[in-house]
Every structure is written in structure tokens, then in C-alpha cells.
Predict the 3D structure of the following.
Amino acid sequence: MAVGGIVAQGGSANYEGRITCFVVITCLVAATGGLIFGYDIGISGGVTSMDEFLQKFFPTVYEKEKNLRHENQYCKFDSHLLQLFTSSLYLAALVASFFASATTRVFGRKVSMVSGGCVFLCGAVLNGAAQNVAMLIIGRLLLGVGIGYANQSVPVYLSEMAPAKIRGALNIGFQMAICIGIVAANMVNYGTAQMKGGNGWRVSLGLAAVPAVIMTVGAIFLPDTPNSLIERGQSEKAKEMLQKIRGVDDVSAEFQDLIDASETSKQVEHPWRNILQRRYRPQLVIVVLIPFFQQLTGINVIMFYAPVLFKTLGFGDNAALMSAVISGFVNVAATLVSVFTVDKFGRRKLFLQGGAQMLVCQIAVGALIASVFGVSGEGSFSKGMGNAALILICLYVAAFAWSWGPLGWLVPSEIFPLEIRSAGQSINVSVNMLFTFFIGQLFLTLLCHMKFGLFFFFGGFVLIMTLFIFFFLPETKNVPIEEINRVFKAHWFWGKYIPDDAVIGNHLVPPKGA
């Protein structure tokens, strides 16, 4: 059964096929892998703002926050140990992403997703039962391994299963799941903060098991992608799967291109070494800079520490948690904008518009905080000023949610040829996790020392990354995934890195002996 019809075009490709219910449902199920990432992002900031949690695990932070003589609002949550609770997960995800690359290539995308879900489930149970900081950190490390596997495999799975015409929309399902996870976590935090007995934080952390179960069970019933099946020598099964997901019997053109790409990939014995070759330089530069820039937008300052940040700005406990819920719903709604526009207007336009809006909002928030707290950190927001700050933060979150949020995962997952795709996605995840770790570990300290200037710091990076997109990112909308290299060959700057005889059919041919 089909829900629409397409002819996927790009370069010299002309793949007949329909948008089938099967492929849409399959991609939506796979995208639930983003739930575990989103739930963790949302839950950690709320938990670290709960008094009972701070009293049990971080008593010095609790005393500092409640000390009425401590008037510097910028510094009241400054604690490296507290930040380690949040950031340790992303260090584990960084390391796990490299192991996930091998798992994904040898055993398939599906196995990586199931493995990630199971490990994340173990971490959720350990965190919910934690008795000391060591148990918390070990649980966070297990959560990180699960996220590393999920973030490595899910975007690749979505890009390979989706028809080129709607690849952007289906791939953004991963970001949508992240956003839904964040909102769910914010709502859970708001509810558990009202619980009597001081164990609300245990419920918040333990409920991470729910998205883990959803992802794991869903992944068990997913088929593997045609690309992965061919890569593992199951050509007949791959052809049957391609026919099923495209909704037509004649898939000979696309199937042959996948076979050719697979033969090329088999010539590559050392993808980690080959990815450093000149011919892959455009993809390598982009896959390093996009996740780097994504974190330097400052978004995880909002997502990790939203309740903490709102409390720093003078919101009460419940008001801070509710403000985080509001910004979370804005995140989901704005991501829907990206789903319906990314394959119509393209990646570049969304990147550029979102970057411009984020820049304005960062500068405005920095100026607003400066006018209230100044350099000393002494002062308090009036209700009007607090509402203005919340509106600006929501506008900033919206801009990120339809640009750098989903596209930061979509573009890196769709630009690599098959022979180095798993390695490329691992680099994407590892760079993302590395700088997520740095931001999570250092933000509260940076806020204490840079004060309102921290928002201008992030704003400067937003300007730089927007200029990078304008000059160096080619448009990839509606281009079949095995045709992406032709786009780079035609680019004004990147074309010189790709030799003329390297573009044969739909893929780059690696040099002999690679």
C-alpha cells in the first residue's frame, strides 16, 4: 500500500518508486531511538535543580544555593562534580560510537539499535536505584554507551531506508523523537518535583527505562536496510527489501547502484585510514564542523540546564520547571516546521534562517541579563523581564529546532559514500559527544566567570557557523544518497578535491590497494 508516489532524482539517477506505508512506519519506529537521547537531555537538568537530589548527592551545591548571603546569581550552581553528573554520559557515548561503527558495519544497523537500547535500560535501572555518586556516574556511563550506539546507527538507518524525495522529513523523525523525549522528561520532572518523601528524582531517573524499552522492542521487529544486507552478502534479500520499501517490482536501477557502491566499499579495507584521503576531504570537514558548531550554538546550555538557568535568573522552583516544559513544547512544534519544509526549501535555507534568528536571540538574552545582573551578579528579574527572557529563549529554541537541531544529524548522515559511511557517522557522533561533554562539564563554571558575556560568546560562534554554511555547504535535498558525491564535485570549492575519474556511476571509486 502506498501513501504517495515519487520519482527520486539526483545527478543521473532516476529511481522509480512510491512512498509506501511500510517505509514510513519503519522509519518512524527506528526514529524512536531518539527518545532515549531526548529524555536524558531533559531529565538531567530538572533533577539537578531538585533540592532532595542536591541534598543527597551534592550537599555543598545545595548549601551554596540556599545561602542567603551568597548574592552572585551567576555562581550559585558552580560545581564540577555536579556538572560531571550531566557530562559523563557524553564521554561514554563518544567512546561507544567507535565500537558502534564496527557493530553497524559487520552486524547491521538493527543490531546496533537493539544493543544500544539494552545497555541504556541497564543504566536507567542503576540510576533510579543509586545510593551514592559513584552509582550515579556508572549509571550515566551506561546510558552514554546506549546513546552512542543509537546515535551512530539510527540516522544512517533512516537515510538508507528513506526515498530521496522525503529523506529529510523521515530522517528528522530522529530529531522529533529527541524533542518529544525532552518534553516528556520536563513534564516528568515537573510532576515528580511535587512528590512527597524526597524520592521524586528516583522516579525521574528510573523512568528512562520506558524510552529504552520502546526503542529496543521496536528495533527487534525492524528489517535491516538494503544497503546493509548487500554489505553483508545478502543480495537477494536486499532486493526483496528494496522492492518492499519502494512499493514497485522494478528496482533494478537503484539496486544496481547499491551493488556498485557495495563493491566499491569492499575494496576499502581500512575505512578509518581512507577517510583521511583527499577525495573524502569535503565530507570529512563537514562531518567534523557541523556537530562542532551544533554544540557551540549553546543549545545544550538550554536543554541540559534549563531549570537551573531559569532558577539562576530568579524563577521559583516550580516556575523554573514549568518554563523548561514550555521551551520543550516550542522545540517540538518548531521541529515539525522542519519536517514539512526541509525537502521543499532545502537544507541551506533552513540553516541560514535559523542561524540568523539564533544570533539575534543570543545577543538579546545576553543584553537583557547584563541589564539586570551586570558584572556583580546581584539583582533579580521583574515578572516582565522574566517573561521577556523566556520569550527570547523560546524564539532561540524554535530557530535551532528547525535548523541546526535536525539538520545537524541529517546532513552528516547523508553525505558519505557507503565505503566509509559507518566511519563517517562515528566521527559525527564522537565530535558531537565530545563537545557536548565539554559544554555540559563547563557551562556552569563559564557562566560564573564569563557572566552575561557567555551568551555573546555563543552568538559569535553562531555567526561563524552561519557563514560556513553559506559558503561551504552544498544543497543535498532530493538527491539520492548514493549520488551525493556528484554534488560535491559540482561545488565551487570542494570540486577540486575530487578527481574527474573518481566519479563513476553514483559513487567515488577508491584508489587501488585501499
About this structure: The radius of gyration is 23 Å.
